[in-house]
């Protein structure tokens, strides 16, 4: 299962973002932030209590099924009067959900979370980072394994000189990403792909501003 992985901003930062706004409506998300326990019903309730203690008037709270769904504004119609009473909406979802709600409602939206990465759930409730949405994907040439997220150094040409016995020099309990890529490509009979030099990563990301025209 793929999720947007978030962590709650420090309450001091949230207070700063809400400065001058006395009446707040809080929105949580029933999918990603509920699963990661950063913006589900318990967290929304706790945030409501914390902000109330700090002098904010909470006009209402809700947890929508999927904050980034275009149907979310219709769901929020049931809370229309309480939303209209608020100076701002504090959204406890990933950045996509915040932007979706803001654009659809035309309201002041404040993010309560920092979006960290897209993660795949593993055993025990943890998550492995699988994509940072860098805009320069090369997994077609690395056997479907992303070196940017799998390698501690984010090397797009590897392995480095520190790999030892197929393990990472930074974390000896972790398989070396480029050993994994080598083994995968070997199984596929595609080892020649490792000989291709990949251009240095553009850490600014390309293309910008992230708007694409896709034929339909």
List the helices and strands and how they pair.
Blueprint: E1 2-8, H1 11-17, E2 23-29, H2 32-35, H3 41-53, E3 57-64, H4 72-76, H5 80-85, E4 88-92, H6 95-105, E5 109-111, E6 113-121, E7 127-131, H7 147-150, H8 177-188
Parallel strand pairs: 2-3, 2-4, 4-5
Antiparallel strand pairs: 1-6, 6-7
What do you see in this structure?
The protein has about 220 residues and is an alpha/beta fold. The protein has two domains: about 1-115, Rossmann fold (3-Layer(aba) Sandwich); about 135-215, no CATH class. The chain is about 30% helix and about 20% strand. The chain has eight helices and seven strands. The chain has helices at about 10-15, 30-35, 40-55, 70-75, 80-85, 95-105, 145-150, 175-190; strands at about 1-10, 25-30, 55-65, 90, 110, 115-120, 125-130. A four-stranded parallel beta sheet has the order 3-2-4-5, sandwiched between helices. A three-stranded antiparallel beta sheet has the order 1-6-7. Strand 6 (about 115-120) and strand 7 (about 125-130) form a beta hairpin. The radius of gyration is 21 Å and the shape is elongated. It starts with a strand and ends in a 28-residue tail after the last helix.
């Amino acid at each position: 299962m793929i999720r947007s992985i978030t962590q709650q901003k420090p309450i001091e930062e949230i207070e700063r973002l809400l400065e001058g706004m006395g009446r707040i409506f809080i929105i949580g998300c029933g999918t990603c932030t509920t699963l990661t326990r950063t913006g589900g019903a318990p967290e929304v309730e706790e945030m409501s209590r914390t902000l109330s203690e700090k002098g904010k008037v909470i006009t209402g709270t809700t947890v929508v099924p999927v904050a980034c769904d275009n149907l979310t504004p219709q769901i929020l119609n049931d809370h229309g009067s309480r939303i209209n009473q608020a100076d701002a909406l504090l959204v406890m979802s990933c950045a996509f959900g915040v932007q979706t709600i803001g654009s659809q409602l035309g309201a002041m939206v404040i993010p309560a979370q920092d979006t960290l990465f897209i993660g795949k759930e593993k055993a025990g409730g943890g998550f492995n980072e699988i994509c940072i949405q860098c805009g320069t994907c090369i997994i077609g040439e690395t056997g479907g394994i992303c070196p940017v997220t799998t390698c501690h150094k984010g090397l797009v040409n590897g392995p480095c000189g520190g790999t030892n016995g197929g393990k990472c020099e930074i974390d000896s309990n972790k398989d070396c990403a480029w050993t994994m890529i080598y083994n995968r490509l070997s199984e596929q009979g595609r080892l020649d792909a490792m000989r291709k030099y990949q251009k240095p990563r553009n850490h600014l990301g390309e293309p910008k501003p992230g708007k694409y025209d896709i034929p339909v």
